[in-house]
Amino acid sequence: MLNFTVGPVMSSCDVLKIGGEQTPYFRNDEFSQIMLENEKLMKEFVYASEDSRVVFITGSGTAAMEATVMNVFDENDKVLIVNGGGFGQRFVDLCKLHNIPHDEIKLDFGQDITQEILDEYRNQGFTGFLVNICETSSCVYYNLDLISEFCNKNNIFLVVDAISSFLANPLNMVEDNIDVFITGSQKALACPPGISIIVLGDKALKRVENNECKCMYFDLKDMLNNGIRGQTPFTPAVTILLQINARLKEIKNKGGVEEEIKRISDLANDFRLRIKDLPLETHCKHLGNSVTDVHCINSQAETIVDALKKEYGIWVNPNGGEIGKKMFRVGHIGDLTIEDNDKLIEAFQDLEQRGILK
Ligand SMILES: *Cc1c(COP(=O)(O)O)cnc(C)c1O
């Protein structure tokens, strides 16, 4: 299997090996040390301030999104949400469910945020801002500089869901004025799904402290308290946390976060250059490095996705809804190489020769 979906993605041999071992007991110093190291490396990789904290939630990325909404906002807030696809809509749904006053910036599929759009929301009493910096459903990577400047100038608390772009596009919590950063285990962290991660800056920690969370499992105060000694309130996905530890150290040993971003960016650029000779197009004008939108000119996307999987053992990411008839996505995250790109391009060329890709 060769997997170009946007998650779960291909894992390295070291990570896979840990998955095949017995799960160790975790209420001990050994596991605590691993968790404290995970926290330290996560802070380093997102350039968080010294007093920032990290929590590891057993649950997929949405668990971290929901825990954030529940623990940093309340009914006295007014939150602005960028909604340009499935994941933006999820933040809207979460705010609705938890009675957080909110407004949304509705964007077209693949449309980027602009200064003009943001200007319309100035001086309207917003206290929070929620954005999925890579809206993985359309592949658009929103302009973080504009968002960060807007929030800074208007004194707005900024939450960035970077679940699919962490390790693929650069981000600096301090310089970009990010108060809460969210990611998950199964995207560029290239581990199995099951753990989501929240990094909280000092303003976020104060908000959590003063907030009353009406949920036992998603109570960040409880997680933060236990995290001081490297533990979690309840049994976590122990194996995935060990895999995350191996993966974070792997990144560190291979030159750090900048090197990993460059590796993924090289893969993305290589792929984008080489599909130019095929009857395929990318439409999104502001792509990040993690994923490319691929539009079929004269064939059905579903046919191509299916043929790749059944006849070549290659998985790309289908899209839901009407757009899925013409578009699929190719991810560049996970344990992929230029040689893997070769295989995918060769499969496309073969499909073209056989008259299936037109
Ligand atoms: C994958 C992803 C999520 C999380 O989805 P889960 O299925 O809950 O892991 C959230 N936001 C973005 C932008 C994503 O790409």
Can you walk through the features of this model?
It is a single chain. α1 packs antiparallel against α9 (238-253) and α3 crosses α4. This protein folds into two domains: 14-253, Aspartate Aminotransferase, domain 2 (3-Layer(aba) Sandwich); 257-353, Aspartate Aminotransferase, domain 1 (Alpha-Beta Complex), CATH 3.90.1150. Helix content is 40%, strand content 17%. The chain has helices at 13-19, 29-45, 61-72, 86-97, 115-119, 144-153, 202-210, 220-227, 238-253, 257-274, 301-312, 338-353; strands at 2-3, 53-58, 79-83, 102-106, 128-132, 134-135, 140-141, 157-161, 180-184, 195-200, 280-281, 291-296, 314-315, 317-318, 327-331. With 358 residues, the protein is an alpha/beta fold.
The CATH class designation of the largest domain is Alpha Beta
Number of helices: 12
Element pattern in H and E: EHHEHEHEHEEEHEEEHHHHEEHEEEH
| Count of β-strands | 15
CATH topology of the largest domain: Aspartate Aminotransferase, domain 2
CATH superfamily (homologous) name of the largest domain: Type I PLP-dependent aspartate aminotransferase-like (Major domain)
**How many separate domains?**
2
Output mean pLDDT.
98
Q: Strand order across the biggest sheet? A: 2-10-9-8-5-3-4
Corresponding CATH architecture of the largest domain:
3-Layer(aba) Sandwich
Helix content: 25-40%
Give the overall silhouette. globular
From the alpha carbons, calculate the radius of gyration and give it in angstroms. Answer: 20 Å
- N-to-C terminal Cα separation, in Å? 25 Å
Structural class: alpha/beta
Residue windows where pLDDT falls under 50 for at least 5 positions: none
Main β-sheet description: 7 strands, mixed
